[in-house]
Amino acid sequence: MVAHRGGAKLAPENTLASFRRAVGWWDADILEMDVRLTSDGYVVVIHDATVDRTTDGTGLVADLDLGEIRNLDAGYNFKDLTGQQSFRGQGVTVPTFEEVLTALPHTRMNVEAKEPQVAGPLVEIIDGKAYAARLRAKVTEAVTDLKSNHGLTPGLAVVLVGEDPASQVYVRNKAKQTIEVGMESSAYRLPDTTNHDELLQQVEALNADANVHGILVQLPLPKQIDSHAIVNAIDPRKDVDGFHLSNVGLLSTGSPNLVPCTPLGCMMLLQDRYDDLSGMNAVVVGRSNIVGKPLASLLLAAHCTVTIAHSRTKNLGAVCRGADILVAAVGRAQMITGEWVKPGATVIDVGINRIDSDDGKTRLVGDVDFESASKVAGAITPVPGGVGPMTIACLLRNTVQAACSIGNVTLTL
C-alpha cells in the first residue's frame, strides 16, 4: 500500500478534477484506491495493485509520487467522475463527483487501468486577483499591528514625472490601495519638463523623510532624465521596487532584501500551487531587469533548473516545450501558443498588451495565446486577473517590510 498527499494546494471542489489531470497511466490488473478529501487537499491511498509497467519504467506504483505523476503527458481516464463507463467496478458503483463530496472524509473505489485517451486536460485558472486580495488582507493586519503595538505607520511615496495616461492610472491605483490597507500615501507629480537634478533633489528629500518608508519613482521617465541614476539614488532600504543595484545584487547572490514586485508575485502564485519547486524545469521568456532576470534568480533559489530565453534564442518553441513552468514576459501579444506548451505545464503570463477586437474596440491580452495554451497547460494565469493584481499587492507588502526593517521591528508577512 502507498499513501500520498497531493503536492499541490487545491481547493476542495477541484481536488478530484486536479487528481484526474495529475495522474499518469500504468498497466495494472486491479487498483483499489481510496481518495480522501480534506479541507486543504486530498490523500490518495493505493492498495494491492498488481503492476506490470509504469510510464517511467520503474514498475512500482510506490515509486511514483505526485510531483512526478503531475508531469506525465498521458492522462488517466477519469473523465468527470460522472460517467459510469469510465470505470469497471468490482461490485462497487462508481460515485459521482457530488456523491464523493457528500461522502467525506472517505470514499473507496475499485478501478481497472485502461489505455490512455487523447484529450486535453482540465486547465486550472490561477486566480491572481483572489490571491492578491488575500495578500492585501495580510498587509492590513500587519499595518494594524505596527500601528497598535509599535507606533509605526508605514508610508509610501510615489513620484510621477509627466502626464502619461497609463502611469497616472497606475499611480492612482497604488495610492487607493495604499490607503485601503491603512498606510500613509503621498504622491509627487512633476511636469514632464523636470530635469535630472530637480528629480534627484526630490528623491533625496524623500530619503531623508522619516515618515516615508517606501519610495517608488514611476517609470518610464522623460528622456532628459537618467533613469538608472535616479533609481540608484533611492535609499536601498526604501527601494520598494527592488531595482537598486544593492537589492539586485542581494537577490542574485541568494540573500534577497526587497524583491521586484512582479517577479515576487509570480513566485507567490507558483508556491501557492506547488509545495516544492525543486527540480522543476523553468523557462523564462524575457530577460528584462524588471521581470525576467529577477524571476530567474527567485526560481534558482527555489532549486528549479532555469533557462532564460529571449529574442535570439534558437528553437524557442522547443525550449518552451521542455518547461514544467513557463513564464512569458517578452512584451509581444499572444506570442506563445499552445504548440509551445508542454502538456500539463504551469504557464505564468506576465504580459499586458492591448490589441484590436472584432467589435472595433480594444481588449487586453497577454504574451500567451490563452485560447490555445489553456487546452494544453495544467494551469495558467489569465490576462487580466492573473499576475497584474499581484504587482501592487506585493508593492504594499514590500512597503511594510521596509518599514519593519527601518523601524527594527520583526514581523512576518
Quote the distance from N terminus to C terminus. 39 Å
> Which architecture of the largest domain would the CATH scheme give at its second level?
3-Layer(aba) Sandwich
Q: From the alpha-carbon coordinates, what is the Rg to the nearest angstrom?
A: 24 Å
Write the H/E string, N to C: EHEEEEHHEEHEHEHEHHHEHEHEEEEHEH
Return residue spans where pLDDT drops below 50 for at least 5 consecutive residues: 1-120
Helix-strand category: alpha/beta
Helix content: 25-40%
List the strand order in the largest sheet. 7-17-14-13-11-12
The H-level CATH homologous superfamily of the largest domain, spelled out, is NAD(P)-binding Rossmann-like Domain
- Estimate what percentage of residues fall within beta strands: 15-25%
Outline the biggest β-sheet: 6 strands, parallel
Explain the overall architecture:
The chain is built from 13 helices and 17 strands. The chain has 413 residues and is an alpha/beta fold. The protein has three domains: 2-111, no CATH class; 153-240, Rossmann fold; 261-390, NAD(P)-binding Rossmann-like Domain (Rossmann fold), CATH 3.40.50.720. The strands form five sheets. Strands 7-17-14-13-11-12 form a six-stranded parallel β-sheet. It has a four-stranded antiparallel β-sheet with strand order 1-4-3-6, with no helix packed on it. α4 runs parallel beside α13, α9 (261-273) runs parallel beside α10 (292-301) and α9 crosses α13. The chain is globular, with a radius of gyration of 24 Å. Residues 1-120 have low confidence and may be disordered.
